[in-house]
Write a structure and sequence with these properties.
This protein has helices at about 15-30, 30-35, 45-55, 100-110, 125-135, and strands spanning about 5-10, 55-65, 65-75, 80-90, 115-125, 140-145, 155-160, 165, 175. The protein is α+β, with helices and mostly antiparallel strands and about 180 residues long. It has a single domain (about 5-175), classed as Aminopeptidase, CATH 3.40.630.30. Strand 3 and strand 4 form a beta hairpin. Helix 1 packs across helix 3.
Length: about 180
């Protein structure tokens, strides 16, 4: 484990290989969270990865040259809401604040686009993710939806009210209401 500070950066349009590497690591580690299997991802189809990269704003947490985690921010075309998708942190770094840094960076982007809430969906049965997002201040909205093809799973929507960012409390950065 490196001692370099964690940086969160947006992936550039040319960094589809980085997205591919991160996504394949995420799917291999947590296929249940992504509803796919590593063997079903098409690692050699460049056009697929370029299109996936264009599907939203991809943030990657880095520690020097090491890639520690990722998430994607997408905008719902129907209602304009900003959603966090495909969040994953390398298991070796899950208690090091990497996920928190990714979410704080995403919140800064959402806030800069004049949105007051950030949303995400969590699959039923992913208790670790449900607990993690609740500890970060996300609250269930009451909305649930089927997901998968065919729809064989349910997911629950969460939202986080984005007040101004502060540097308070024993856990560092947080949001004020």
């Amino acid at each position: 484990m490196s001692t370099s500070p964690v940086r969160v950066e947006l992936l550039a349009s040319s960094e589809w290989r980085t997205l591919r590497e991160m996504r394949l690591r995420a799917v291999a580690d947590s296929p249940h969270a992504f509803l796919v299997h590593a063997g079903r991802e098409r690692p050699d189809v460049e056009e697929d990865w370029q299109a996936y990269l264009r599907s939203g704003l991809w943030l990657v947490a880095r520690d020097g040259a090491n890639r520690l985690g990722m998430l994607c921010l997408v905008t719902d075309a129907e209602n304009g809401r900003r959603y966090v998708e495909a969040m994953w942190v390398d298991p070796a770094h899950r208690t090091a604040g990497v996920g928190k840094q990714l979410l704080l960076s995403a919140a800064d982007i959402v806030r800069a686009s004049h949105h007051l809430k950030m949303f995400l969906w969590v699959l039923d049965g992913n208790d670790r993710a449900h607990g993690y997002y609740r500890r970060r201040g996300f609250l269930p909205t009451g909305r649930r939806q089927p997901v998968g093809s065919p729809p064989e799973h349910l997911e629950e929507e969460y939202s986080l009210h984005l007040g101004k960012r502060t540097n308070a409390g024993k856990n560092g950065d947080t949001f004020t209401q």
